[in-house]
Design goal:
Length: 154
């Protein structure tokens, strides 16, 4: 079952939005696999950002209890942390391209699920965080839900 927007929705359109008719399906037609693969570099950049920020926060000198501003300055001037923030910024700009190729209701769950899995496994591999069977099961359940959701739009 597909849900359609009310007649005339987006008719005047936002810049870059195609005109919409009551017969247009919001689930869209199938998209080539290459469009889904565009999400992978974005997830890698965001995963890199998350892991690096966590790693640097673990290895940084801990400030005195009242030293939050000094702690903040330390992170803002750390080139490794800055690289993580730049990676996240670049990923957000790349995301603008991805959402022109896929419906947001498909692209976003795929992106979040992929990033979730990569952060969990990256935290285990690089930061020696716990990887329990429950977390692994959660990843599989999330991917199962994403596959089910994307397949229903096809």
């Amino acid at each position: 079952m597909f849900v359609t927007a009310p007649t005339g929705a987006f008719k005047s359109g936002w810049p870059g939005c195609p005109p919409h008719s009551s017969t247009t399906n919001l689930a869209y037609d199938r998209y080539p696999v290459k469009n889904y693969l565009l999400i992978l570099p974005i997830a890698i950049l965001v995963t890199y950002s998350q892991i690096v920020v966590k790693w640097r926060s673990l290895t940084a000198d801990q400030p005195a209890p009242s030293g939050f501003p000094e702690h903040l300055v330390h992170f803002v001037t750390d080139p490794v942390v800055l690289s993580a923030y730049l990676a996240a910024l670049f990923a957000s700009f790349a995301w603008l391209f991805v959402i022109t190729k896929l419906p947001l209701t498909v692209a976003f769950p795929v992106y979040i699920g992929l990033t979730f899995a990569m952060v969990i496994f990256g935290g285990w591999f690089f930061l020696s965080e716990t990887l329990s069977t429950t977390r692994v099961l959660a990843v599989f359940l999330i991917f199962g839900g994403i596959v089910l959701g994307v397949a229903s739009d096809a």
